[in-house]
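Problem statement: downstream parser choked on a complex file, so we are re-checking the raw output for the manganese (II) ion run. The parser issue turned out to be on our end (a line-ending mismatch), but while we're here, posting the original submission so the record is complete.
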Amino acid sequence: MNKVYVFGHQKPDTDSVTSSIAYAYLKNRLGVNAEERILGDINKETKFVLKYFNVKKPQYLDSVKLQLKDINYYRNYFINCDSSLNDTYNYLIDNCITGIPVVDDNKKLLGIVTIKDFIYNLKTCNNYLNTSYQHIIDILKGESKNKISDSIKGYIKVKDESVFIIDKEINTVITTKYSNNGYKLFNNINVICTNKSLVDVIRLLPWSNYVKDFISKDRIIKFSEDMYYDDFIKETNHLKFNNYPVIGKGDKCKGLIRITDINSKERKKVILVDHNELSQSVDGLEEAEIIEIIDHHKIGTSTNNPISFRNMTVGSTNTIIYQMYIENNIDIPYDIAGLMISGILSDTLGLTSSTTTDIDIRVVKDLEHILNLDYKEFFYKMLEAGTSIIGETIDDIVRQDLKYFQVGNIRYAISQMITLDINNIIKEKNKYLEVITEYKKNHNLELMIFIITDVIKKGSYLLYTDGIENMLKEIYHLDDVYEGVFIDNLTSRKKQVVPYVNEYLK
Ligand SMILES: [Mn+2]
């Protein structure tokens, strides 16, 4: 089975990154070749967590669009440039193909030879030979009588039922069935003896030529195996050939792709964790095959095929994955347990958010036991690392965790930051207001809210663009709203802000 990619949403947070790693590990233990990926840069908190548990950052995944490497092309079909025409011809016939890439000893592509080239070249072939001693032996089923050199080149001349190869001087003599075996006279040239008739020898000799001299010089067309399938189709529509070499890193030949075979392809297999909406996912997802989804968000997707879909109303994707480890009876290693607890604590704000369930609490207890740590202490360390704003501009901070939402034609944005020291932020309130007002204007948004969540005080300050005072009054039952209104127990954008704003805007 091809590799299965496991990844969370764009703008990855700690839960999406750690759940990808934890789930890919579980899949591998269950015999699936799965590998975790990220769709974008990881945040400070995630960096801290990976470092703390000594786990490597996953590789990026740009796209899961079909590439040439997903086509079942003729992998490892190519021939060395020092092969004879005869070997090349047999290769084509044996494999029922009409062209073959030609490579040097380092598998670097030199070009392609097709049946058409054979016909053309053999028809116009002059009587010049560039080959090896062994190729001549092979094609004539000859016997080596005196070998002087590996390589043989020169014009073919006939005299008295024998064939001479002359390059300035005679370098080779081939005696045939009716030659009067005078080869013993020559001891400083190659002597090959064959039982074939002179006519057969003359007919066969050109087939001993090195294939490298028969490469189509006018078209060294090649395609990288990373090329997108779409682009390949577009380009080859103009070219109209049937055979194309495929190359990999360093121009090394990977094989042959035939236009007639391009429908045999394998879509990339993916597992989505911590998200199920296409708009939050990887580029080209429509060309991939989703084999599984594990999530704890609202369902915003549909698929063409039945898939394994596991969605639970718990605080974090890692809580679900923990249960899957238990169900499958797989031990959780220390570092994976560390990643899991980090994902849960991150999404539930240390088990304080309104999304926290009893299951999350139970799982954190179990993980604490494996890890031998205190979750509150550890969560505080995560927060410190994640909320540090040293060296960052207000613009950076506002963009860090910004999400877009849409109700009908109305598009709006809500950004959120988490802090341990709200006063420090609030004193620069006016600068934040300027930034979000500007952002709203530049991005054609109806409104924008910036949530500053204080995990110590367990509540959030809301900063917002003009004109939504009434909306906020109604949603949060406030008598009066002012910029920087503090709302007790508000910690979740997903549960405590977005649904109400959507409802209001409908
Ligand atoms: Mn999550």
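For whoever reads this later: The mean pLDDT is 92.
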